[in-house]
Amino acid sequence: MRAAHDLSIRRRETLLKGMSAVVALSDDEQQQIRTAGSELREKGSLIAEDGEHRRSSFLASGWALRQEFLADGRRQISGFLIPGDPLAPFSYLGEPVSDGIVAITPVEIVDVTHIGGPRSARLLDVIERFNLTVARDHLQFYRNQMIRLGCHSAVQRMAHLLLELHSRLMRVGLTSDGRYEFPLTQEMLADALGLSVVHVNRVMKQLRSAGLVQQTGGKLQILNRKRLEQLSEYSE
Amino acid sequence: MRAAHDLSIRRRETLLKGMSAVVALSDDEQQQIRTAGSELREKGSLIAEDGEHRRSSFLASGWALRQEFLADGRRQISGFLIPGDPLAPFSYLGEPVSDGIVAITPVEIVDVTHIGGPRSARLLDVIERFNLTVARDHLQFYRNQMIRLGCHSAVQRMAHLLLELHSRLMRVGLTSDGRYEFPLTQEMLADALGLSVVHVNRVMKQLRSAGLVQQTGGKLQILNRKRLEQLSEYSE
DNA sequence: CGCACTGTTGAAATCTTTCAAAAGCTGTGG
DNA sequence: CCACAGCTTTTGAAAGATTTCAACAGTGCG
């Protein structure tokens, strides 16, 4: 029990790291976030449905994805969520979650509106500002996704996405030496990149045998960032 | 001179129509917008560049597009702007214009921050609320674009886009009987839909000869909305 | 052990692009 | 008014990228 609680608090550090990079948090505020209530969801579960309001929910640990289905069963994954990401980055628009959010791994979700205590008002204000900055980033991720789908070849799409994920994970301290946890199946990659599963497989093979990336034990490593960047015109 | 001024004010009505559908405007406020200063730009001109702040600029008349170039010359058009649309729908994020905006036709741009007068403060507030609602719509257009690029075949993409444009134009009163002004070249369509110009041509031909749309004299008409909708799974 | 899911591979089919050329259209200057 | 340049649309044929179909190997789990 105690151990589980500690683990949960340790996971919260990623979220705190992401927030601290953007807004200043007092020790007290950090402590409030550390001890805020959280929700655990298992791998594969639907975290939020289309139309739900999740104004102040953040992913504290684990990965998730945003998906939309077409009538004929095709699915578009519009993006991936990593620790530190808000479930509804555009919530201040009054915009509810606009598509399904599904847990890719077991996830922990912190809803900061459930934080009580004397200084919670100011904390919510800080979080609002954090939200704004993060929303700007997510707008950029949308644009990245559009560039990939609209302009890139299959190999470029893959390279570009792998680089984007690396950048994002690095910012919250979840990379080491170009290597990061990689829980995405080839089917998810296919639905995100607008490719068939079979082709994703071939493209990954191509990147691997060109010595650009390596994949072992659920982790992915960027071996030649420079080549990947020029291949996919990735910037930043 | 007088004639040109009248024309300009008449054009402003489209913008007003768009705004009135969303927020209540007093006669006085409508008058302020009617007489607000405007900027005219000729066809083909760059209206705003990446990084520019255009917090309160709206297209009063004409069409424009949002584009981003890759190093190798490929271009992604992320969306089209029609009368009533803001140049920077996500400006309250502190987000500057994030890509180039180019005039497709001669355009008139109203910057509502240039409105003076006693009640301008309240008007700005109203406009801010309008902005929020419109931003929500534009988020949807982004998602539409992602679905097109990620899940649709060439014919579906085209059908879906033509339907979206029709819906949007209808909302500001710029359609009649399924017909609307259509200033887009096949090259623009290609860059928006992630297709080659040649293929766009063939796809249009296909839609025309299937009796689904008609194109004459710079106008496009939806002939069989129902079939187009089921073809592209367009909803709303 | 067997089932369900994920990854891998080959071959054929399909969609889309590229290349090349020509025709239509528009505005400009002689 | 014609000629011309420049842009847009159109068409055919060949090349290329990606998908589909089908089958099989690996892995984890009850």
What fraction, in percent, of the residue positions of chain A are helical?
A: 40-55%
Element-level helix/strand string of chain A:
HHEEEEEEEHHEEHHEEH
* pLDDT averaged residue by residue of chain A: 90
What oligomeric arrangement do these chains adopt? homodimer
Question: How many distinct domains of chain A?
Answer: 2
Q: How would you sum up the global shape of chain A?
A: globular
- Uncertain parts of chain A: none
Rg of chain A, Å, rounded: 18 Å
Strand content of chain A: 15-25%
Give a quick account of the main beta sheet of chain A: strands, pairing sense, barrel closure: 4 strands, antiparallel
- The secondary structure category of chain A is alpha+beta
Largest interface, counted by CB within 8 Å of the partner chain's CB = A-B, 32 and 32 residues
Number of strands of chain A: 11
Q: What is the count of DSSP helices of chain A, taking H or I runs of 4+ residues?
A: 7
Strand order of the largest sheet of chain A: 2-6-4-5
Terminal CA distance of chain A? 42 Å
CATH class of the largest domain in chain A: Mainly Beta
CATH architecture of the largest domain in chain A: Sandwich
Summarize the structure.
2 copies of one chain form a homodimer. By secondary structure, chain A is an alpha+beta fold. Chain A is 45% helix and 20% strand.
